[in-house]
Amino acid sequence: MRQLPLFHTIAGQPVLVLGEGDMAEPKRRLVERAGGRVVTDLQQGIDEGARLAFVAHNDAAMCESDAIRLRGAGLLVNVVDRPDLCEFTTPSVLDRDPVLIAVGTGGASAGLAKQLRLRLERLLPADLGQLANKLSAAREALRARFPAMADRRRALDAALDEGGALDVMASGGAGRVEAWLDDPAGSTGDEVHEFTLASPDPEDLTIRQARLLGCADAVIADPGVSPAVLARARADARRMTLPYTAELPKGLVVFLRSA
After folding, report:
1. pLDDT recorded at residue 154
2. Does the domain made of 191-257 have the CATH classification 3.40.1010.10?
3. In 56-206, which ranges are continuous DSSP H helix?
4. Phi and psi dihedrals of 131, rounded to 5?
5. CA 151, CA 145: separation in Å to the nearest integer?
6. CATH architecture assigned to 1-90
7. Residue 189: predicted pLDDT
8. Secondary structure of residue 33 in the 3-state scheme
9. By C-alpha distance, which of 154, 26, 142, 186 is closest to 90?
10. Where in the chain is the domain with CATH 3.40.1010.10?
11. Residue numbers in the chain where pLDDT is lower than 50
């Protein structure tokens, strides 16, 4: 990754937006949409402790000058249409509050990010945010039903997967949460899967392999498995190396062997 994607909480906080016209106005709306307080004076923003700044002057030299001053004051800076001057970029946002999906290209093409977001808009159900809220409210019930974190994670993975009781691509999921928690068939057990990779390229993973790798609690790989393939595993999955002779970890375990 060339950028670290983060969701930044700015509700009630000052955010600098410098400039006028067509380039600055969308940034003002974006800040206000996220609950931030727009400040348009550079020194005022610094004095009030702003952490983010958008610079959208029509004059290129003024953009560079303000960016240098703001950076020196410790702010993260976005200069509109100047990715070379940006510490951060703004993605195209799909809003299913509280679910947010951000599509970014590192400033390479805002049009590409927008078209990807529009495609996703058509795919995702309008009530996806309701499912997220329902699952949040059901946290204690989930812990009671699945006390072990690994069991809880795998139960949710199965329910939210394609065809599952809470399939994220199917509308009405929020109304099915209680029934899913009451269903005794929702219990989980340890699973072990082993497969040999076709190549070092993660694009050659089968759909099943990619799904198992993305859900695994532990990945045990031989030294020849490429880092690009291992990157498809969950960031918090345990990673171990073959040969592995200790007792297998609990949960969903995937063995990877290079071609």
Report:
1. 86
2. yes
3. 60-72, 110-123, 128-137, 139-145, 149-160, 177-182
4. -65, -45
5. 9
6. 3-Layer(aba) Sandwich (3.40)
7. 62
8. helix
9. 26
10. 191-257
11. none
Which residues, other chains included, contact 83 with Cβ-Cβ below 8 Å and sequence gap of 6+? 89, 106, 107, 108
What 3-state class would DSSP assign to 137? Answer: helix
Measured between alpha carbons, how far apart are the two ends of the chain, in Å?
A: 25
Is residue 135 within 8 A of residue 177, CB to CB? The reply is yes
> According to CATH, where is 3.40.50.720 located in the chain?
1-90
Which helix (H) or strand (E) segment holds residue 213: the answer is: helix 207-215
Q: Which of 130, 240, 253, 234 is nearest to 191 (CA)?
A: 253
Has this prediction a pTM greater than 0.85?
Answer: no
**In sequence order, what are the beta bridge partners of 238?**
218
| Strands in the chain per DSSP E | 14-18, 37-39, 52-55, 76-79, 92-96, 99-103, 191-196, 218-221, 238-241, 252-257
Domain 91-123: which CATH class? alpha beta
pLDDT at position 245 is 87
Q: In 3-state terms, what secondary structure has residue 148? A: coil
Residue whose token pair is 């959208």: 56
Q: What is the pLDDT of residue 185?
A: 58
Give residue 238's Cα distance to chain centre.
Answer: 20
- pLDDT for res 178: 92
Closest by CA position to 152, among listed 188, 180, 183, 178: 188
- Taking residue 69's Cβ as centre, other Cβ atoms within 10 Å add up to 16
Closest CA to 28 of 3, 53, 50: 53
Residues of the chain with CATH 3.30.160: 91-123
